Amino acid sequence: MLNKNDKVAIIAPAAQFCNADRILLQQSIDLLESWSLQVEVFVEESHHFYLAGTDQQRQQHLNAVLTDPNIKAIFCTRGGYGSARLLAGLPDSTTVNSKMLIGCSDISALHLAMATSYPQVQCIHGPNVATKQLLSGSESAIHNQKSLYDCLFVTQQASYNLQFITPGKTTGKLIGGCLSLISTAIGTPCFPNLSGSILLIEDVGEAPYKIDRMLQHLINTGLTAGLKGIVFAEMHNCTDPYNDLKAIIHDLFCSYDLPIGFGLTTGHGLINNSIPLNSTAILDSEKGTFSIQ
Q1: CA–CA gap between residue 155 and residue 152 (Å, rounded)
Q2: pLDDT by residue (tens digit) across 50-85?
Q3: Domain residue ranges of the chain, discontinuous segments joined by +
């Protein structure tokens, strides 16, 4: 957990800022400072293609904050694309001290890498800090701010109501994030061992057949064999007029003896609750809940 006056960093490992959105960076600084945090910013003024700087610039920023013992949390500005281009250049695990890494979407590439080789880094699947999802002033943004604040400063224990696609009760370490990033990480050194875990899956704007393809690829690799359960987020805009995504998920996993929940409010929807990864999670279909201990 964080304490008042802790030093934290804001980095941009993925997509660039459009000019009109750069005001969100200052707003994110203001928000964190209102929580009595000391904020250091590692964000380039220029961009490189669709990225928030060259690979070298973004790598230097990421490695600097990971290895700085005074920085207690790292907040990522936004998703998009680019984090995977930094994985090969991550610092040696022995040089990285305990801290938090907060973000979602493309930041899942970093979360998976941390789960694989950097257990001292606690990953929070929650809002990217320089986004309207957190800063618009809407009712949902205010909710997201409170969820993030509570996860950082108050408690990481929480319980959420879910629909269940398959029944059961299980406990396991929570791993996962954006399905597109999970799928592309398979076969790389940055893909964690899923055995004994509950897998968190979320995504946005992917047609049901594409979700099917990525899940089938995960099944075909054999990596799902040791899973204890799966919790799907809302899968925002992953629809078409003709196919029910929950029915497709049931069709893929109905022969597996593991509970599968659906509808966790984290990720790309209006509500993005902050969920601590690598924590102990419980899926319970009888209660209809997903809980973090």
Answers
A1: 7
A2: 999 999 999 999 999 999 999 999 999 999 999 999
A3: 7-153, 158-292
CA–CA dist 81, 95 (Å, integer): 26
| Overall residue count recorded for the chain in this entry | 293
DSSP letter assigned to residue 278: T
Q: Which residues of the chain have pLDDT under 70?
A: none
159 DSSP β-pair partners? 291
pTM: 0.97
pLDDT per residue as tens digits for the range 183-201: 999 999 999 999 999 999 9
What is the rounded distance in angstroms from the CA atom of residue 277 to the CA atom of residue 201?
Answer: 12
Measure the CA–CA gap between 108 and 284, rounded to whole angstroms. Answer: 25
Q: For residues 127 and 104, is the Cβ–Cβ distance under 8 A?
A: yes
Cβ partners under 8 Å of residue 66, min gap 6: 74, 90, 91, 95, 96, 99, 118, 121
Superfamily (CATH H level) for 7-153: Murein tetrapeptidase LD-carboxypeptidase, N-terminal domain (3.40.50.10740)
Q: Chain-centre distance of CA 132, in angstroms?
A: 17
What's the CA gap between 68 and 97, in Å, rounded? 7
Strands (E), 80-120: 99-103
CATH of domain 158-292: 3.50.30.60
Residue spans of alpha helices (H) in the chain = 23-34, 55-67, 108-117, 132-135, 139-149, 179-185, 208-220, 245-253
5 in the Ramachandran plot: left (φ > 0), alpha (ψ -120 to 50) or beta? left
